[in-house]
Design goal:
Number of strands: 10
Distance between the termini: 32 Å
Bound molecules: zinc ion
CATH topology: Arginase, Chain A
Strand content: 5-15%
CATH class: Alpha Beta
Strand order of the largest sheet: 2-1-5-10-9-6-7-8
Number of domains: 1
CATH architecture: 3-Layer(aba) Sandwich
Largest sheet: 8 strands, parallel
Helix content: 25-40%
Radius of gyration: 18 Å
Length: 352
């Protein structure tokens, strides 16, 4: 088994500044947690995505506008800003995801993780959003489709709903999007009833969660919903939008931060995951990949508590490289209501 860990120095040169939490220090923490890679994992370099690859997901107007920000600092929307090297970083981040698809399809590695910044899953075809300039996971999925992979599954465990990825694929039956996320929460999308549209009905699977769920509950939701659906969908590639901002320590999605995010609504804490939970979810994705014979790749999204981010990424890389995922304790039952609602919706499309 060979696990590719994709990295490029450009990813730390994206410095949005202001109050934006996606800081270069995030990747510093990840690098130090991976100062020695586990056996079976090795570093891999990234290339730039080509204009043609980017245009599979993004509109010419947005790509042209993005080009105008090269060498400049600018605030693009309330949560998204660029520094002079941000556009280069974003194009390289997209290329890291796309290039990892190539490496896995060509057998250079069996699985991998792209440690990219800026993140991608809020980016829409026509505009940036929520720290994201280009949708790295969606670009990887489209690249795989272009290379002849008939079906691709994108599984998103970031604490926020990947509204960009959902929108890009919601009318399509060839790319399945599954997301577990806090709700109500930024960006406001991802209700269980959002199931896709047109030919894509049934291929968008949303699991909105209240605060207070921990490792065992998340794993239970993945095992009861994501795994049987993806088994049946039979993708030729599995992409995980791997954000770690659902860690209990995270300032955006963790135990203390929920009220700040909901302005005025009092909710008992955000997501309570730990690095063990992320390792277990990575294990679920790995089981699917093994049973389907499909390559598995993780693409970094959020995660803003530096220590927690480093430990969580390391835990996932260890699982990708062959370590046994941890056994989690019993569920406390808080997932049952979520599960009931999601199963009721999804049983229209899948035998759950
Ligand atoms: Zn997030």
């Amino acid at each position: 088994m060979s696990t590719l860990v994709v990295w490029d120095e450009l990813f730390v040169e994206h410095e949005p500044g202001l109050d934006i939490r996606d800081t270069p220090e995030r990747l510093g923490a990840v690098r130090s947690a991976l100062s020695r890679l586990p056996p079976g994992a090795r570093w891999a370099s990234a290339r730039d995505a080509t204009r043609g690859e980017l245009a599979r997901v993004h509109t010419p107007a947005w790509l042209d506008e993005l080009d105008t920000y090269r060498g400049r600092s600018a605030l693009l929307e309330p949560d998204t800003a660029v520094s002079p090297r941000s556009v280069e970083a974003a194009v390289r981040a997209a290329g890291a995801a796309v290039g990892l698809v190539d490496a896995l399809l060509e057998g250079t590695g069996t699985n991998g993780m792209a440690l990219v910044r800026p993140p991608g899953h809020h980016a829409l075809p026509e505009r940036p959003m929520g720290f994201c300039l280009l949708n790295n996971a969606a670009l990887a999925a489209e690249h795989a489709r272009g290379r002849g992979v008939e079906r691709v599954a994108i599984l998103d465990w970031d604490v926020h709903h990947g509204n960009g990825t959902q929108r890009i694929f919601e009318r399509r039956a060839d790319v399945l999007y599954f997301s577990t996320h806090l709700s109500p929460f930024y960006p406001g999308t991802g209700r269980a009833e959002e199931v896709g549209a047109g030919a894509g009905v049934g291929y968008t699977v949303n699991v909105p969660m209240p605060g207070g769920l921990g490792d065992a509950e998340l794993e239970a939701l993945w095992r009861r919903v994501a795994m049987p659906i993806v088994e049946r969908f039979r993708p030729g590639l599995i992409i995980v939008s791997a954000g770690f901002d659902g860690h209990a320590d995270d300032p955006l999605g963790g135990r203390d931060a929920f009220e700040e995010q909901l302005a005025g609504r009092s909710v008992p804490g955000g997501s309570l995951l730990t690095e063990k939970g992320y390792a277990a979810l990575c294990g679920c994705a790995g089981e699917l990949a093994a049973s389907l014979g499909a390559p598995l790749m993780l693409v970094l999204e959020g995660g803003y508590a530096l220590g927690a981010l480093g430990r969580s990424v390391r835990a996932c890389v260890e699982v990708l490289a062959g370590a046994r995922p941890p056994e989690l304790g019993a569920c406390r039952g808080a997932e049952r209501l979520v599960l009931e609602r999601v199963l009721e919706v999804q049983r229209r499309f899948w035998p759950l």
